[in-house]
Amino acid sequence: MSRFSRRDFLATTAGAALASRFVGSAAAAPTVTPKRGGTLIGTWGGFEPQSLFVPAGGGSSPYFTSTKVHERLIRLAVDLKFEPVLALEIKPAADFRSYTIKLRDNVTWHDGKPFTADDVVFNAMEYWKPISGGVSLDALESVEAVDRLTVVLKFKAPVPEFFLKSVLASKSGLVIPKHIYAGSNIITNPINNTPVGTGPYKVKEWVRGSHVELLRNDKYWNPGLPYIDRLVIRWWRDPASRSAAFEAGQLDIGVFNPIPMPEIARLSAGGKFIAESKGYSNSAWIATVEFNQRREIFKKREVRQALMHAIDRQFIADTIFFGRASPSIGAIHNSNSIFFTKDVQNYPFDVKKAAALLDAAGYPVKSGSRFKLSLVSAGWFEENVKMGQYLKQAFEDLDITVDLSVPDRATSLKRIYTDYDYDVAISNNSGGIELIPGTTQYYTTDGIVKGAAFRNATGYSNPKMDEIVARMTVETDEPKRIELAKDFDRLATIEAPILPMVDLEPVTIVRSDVRNHSTTADFLGESWAEVWLDR
Amino acid sequence: MRRIILRRLAQIIPLVFAVIVMNFVLIQLAPGSLFDVMTSEQQVTDPAMLNQLRKTYGVDQPTSVQLAKYIWSVVRLDLGYSYRQNAPVLDVIVEQLPATVILMLAATVIALLVGITAGVLASVKVNTIWDNLISLGAVFFFAAPSFWLGIMMTVLFAVKLGWFPVGGMRTIGSDQSALGDALDVMHHLVLPATALGLFYAATYARVMRASMLEVFRLDFVRTARAKGLSPGRVVVAHVMRNALLPIITLVGLQLGTMLGGSVVIEAVSSWPGIGSLLFDSVMSRNFPMVLGVLVLGSLLVAVCNATVDILYLRLDPRIRAR
To answer: pTM above 0.90?
Structure first.
């Protein structure tokens, strides 16, 4: 099976050849010799983190900073193959109920203490399972250090290899030092504001409200890396200020939509800056419309399907997202070249058909209106606000009365995920390549957790769906697993408790003299050890 | 005199208490909670973990208990712990407050210098082209939103001309002497302080002009002129001193609102002050931090107002006589 999507393949062959040689082994000869030194100033399209490292999963902002300091056992390259970082090898037993992890030797923490199997045992039982991984590591039973550099994870049930590796390569797999955290409350340990890791950069100073300054770790396990002497991550609250900083030469790289979308073309026109959309497939974002199944009207599948026909998703992609998105095919983001499938129920934009379906479902137009619904558009993205306005219009064209509200972030979270106080909600979900539990929890019964955001808020519950996901959780044969994922997507699109609108294509804006970036599937969360400056 | 000062200081205690209770109630009334925001950002969905966090953040307790605990800790001069910042509230505020105070002071100085000069000039040259130009400028800077002004000034002076940095408070990574550091901060301060100050300068210019014109008509000015003082001395020593009272009043009042104005300017020029901290804390319903900033803010405003009152006594002996 090819792990390349065609789009990625064409774009990345050159870059991937360059990238792969820096990881662990020395393979192909480089075409350009990287230069050492310099200061890289980076930012991302959001705000300053609350703390440089946030143990409980972590939102994008702390994840962006902490991954320069903390490393994981493995990482996922842009070609969707796992590459060694702190672990040289992760091997399943024949029954997939235990995994043996071989660790890299001669790795030290920033404070000089050695990194050993004890650290991994501590992380697995005290940090990953209870705090960061949550349900993903439910099956983890025990962990054992066989020797100084070998760890064995034991599970209650078979665990698919891709699944476990995805967890270890994800946000929840950061490795933290046992000698600092043991015996303390990991969540509130003050060290989280000046994290100590094994990564290529050490924290020098965090000026709250402004920036964090990271210095090259001279004792990094990969002797040539990192190339950059100093990495400064700055935060701006205002996207327009970020474009000004780019233009004034005071910002080199910005990940995850750092500047207003209309500015992208202008800034990248002169050749001084590049707009790059690679590096997001393992944290892919979808804009969604969710139907509250606690409302009588939306319990009817026909109504949900009818409304799917009423929305022009191409318009949303072109106009609201300035082409930086594409109409969703199914519940799986189109950049997921492993599990994505086109073989699902599709809903072309067809207002007449939508009207006919609603008539048939028992909601004809009576005195000017079919029914009334409250539309809550989560106000955390500017695009959601515009989508709310568009959807109101689209539904009103079908003679549905719409009461639109656009609450701020805290209120949106409460209304959608805690109080279930909406009929139709516009929200966003992000998921990794691995569908469990990130993507599947939007559709499964165990995803319904009152007060847990970005999970099944619709209340949709279907034993057939639960069964597919349950089988996928323990299926260790990869091709069979992919078939199950397709079953999942087919059922999700037929049932349509959530309407995926557009698959977002986030953009990295980078100065053209910054080299060797965007080489992993989750560039926001990469260590940036291999980035270098051609100055 | 001392009695007045003591009385003003005593008034601060109930004020701070009222600020705490009112803001606590307001935050509780806002939908959504710190818990919602934190768990969603961290994508915590494990019910056991949710419960553990509820306990850690103390949101499992009734609101009244949370309020009582908070007041008790403020009495002991402890502003509480912010789980969002993972640090004591006071530490975070102390770290970021100086930047805002510097910005506010610089903006106030710019506002006073520009505003008073423009006001005096307009009143001396009343109904000439000067007066009209100053009025036009005042209307413009009063009407222009400060975030727009901030961005436009950044685009012109930082991006196009390259005279000033686009944001921040210091050149990152430069180890300088104390003097070099001060100059560096001042260099970074120019754009945000000007953008913030010009809005207030506009008000001061209008008020100063009106106030000057009023004082010009008074008898003692005519007397001063009659006894042969130079026009400059009349303007500065007699008219200006008396026309300053309303400005002092305004400055006292506006120091409070300036904290609000600085939120926007701090955002635009990534100034590491208290404004963005307050904004974030309101958005994330982080009440210990909001309350901490507001308690210290109210103290600041109260002290400023007390200072203004004392300045009044110096400027206008009639008040002391009462």
So the answer is: no
